[in-house]
Amino acid sequence: MADVSIVVVSHSRQLGEGLVKLLRQLAPGVDLHQAAGLGEELGTDATAVAAALQQCPETNDILVFFDLGSAAMNAEMALELTPQSVAGRTHIVDAPLVEGAVAAAVAARSRLPVADVIQQAEAARTVPKILS
Amino acid sequence: MADVSIVVVSHSRQLGEGLVKLLRQLAPGVDLHQAAGLGEELGTDATAVAAALQQCPETNDILVFFDLGSAAMNAEMALELTPQSVAGRTHIVDAPLVEGAVAAAVAARSRLPVADVIQQAEAARTVPKILS
């Protein structure tokens, strides 16, 4: 079974770096990357996303989480900038950035199959965050 | 109609600060605060949340967004640490941190009633992020 890498795409370098550190604490050992911000400015960059995808181990499935729609567009453009051997293993996940990436990282740490990791991330949309 | 303040509660100072900067760019003029991290360590602190709540203008409704369940617990504890005049205007919103806060900030900038701002934030759970 392939392992799962997670790539965080955010308009904010701080947000992306902070989320990766949080994921690292919650799910040590999971392969994590970020492509966030345009230097200190807010924005995303398809080339930076493509570079992050190519840093992932070549046997891993890659899940991309993003903040805003324009980040998703740059992630999709990144797939066109990477070899099919990378793009074909990459899934842009339509899930909340923080909650989805946390659920995916925890599931990836348990070495669930990639389809299950994606399912856990997508389920983060509906899981209550406040327990009564 | 009261204006809306937004308080971001995150385990990561970087994540919280990055999100506030993103919100400021997307919704200039909206009152924004964060209580994030334990210094450079990961964690949340009810006292810091209470302090952030008390920095909000006293006529504003206050919406709190958070990353993980333990952050929500500290936000709830913060309500017990603040005067009823503050706690009574505060709503802990069960929505995705980034997507909910973005939706709320945009709605608050349009000066929608607080119930509508909360509804927009909660709706971020189900809005597709990838447009086909």
Automatic annotation (TrEMBL), chains A, B:
Q: Which InterPro entries match?
A: DhaM (IPR039643), DhaM_N (IPR012844), PTS_EIIA_man-typ (IPR004701), PTS_EIIA_man-typ_sf (IPR036662)
Q: Which reaction does it catalyse?
A: dihydroxyacetone + phosphoenolpyruvate = dihydroxyacetone phosphate + pyruvate
What task does this protein carry out?
A: Component of the dihydroxyacetone kinase complex, which is responsible for the phosphoenolpyruvate (PEP)-dependent phosphorylation of dihydroxyacetone. DhaM serves as the phosphoryl donor. Is phosphorylated by phosphoenolpyruvate in an EI- and HPr-dependent reaction, and a phosphorelay system on histidine residues finally leads to phosphoryl transfer to DhaL and dihydroxyacetone.
Name the keywords, alphabetized. Kinase, Transferase
Q: What is the name attached to this protein's record?
A: phosphoenolpyruvate--glycerone phosphotransferase
Q: How does it assemble?
A: Homodimer. The dihydroxyacetone kinase complex is composed of a homodimer of DhaM, a homodimer of DhaK and the subunit DhaL.
UniProt-listed GO biological process terms: glycerol catabolic process; phosphoenolpyruvate-dependent sugar phosphotransferase system
GO cellular component annotations of the record = membrane
User: Where do the coiled-coil regions begin and end?
Assistant: none
- State the EC number(s): 2.7.1.121
GO MF annotations in UniProt: phosphoenolpyruvate-glycerone phosphotransferase activity
Give the source's domain of life in one word: Bacteria
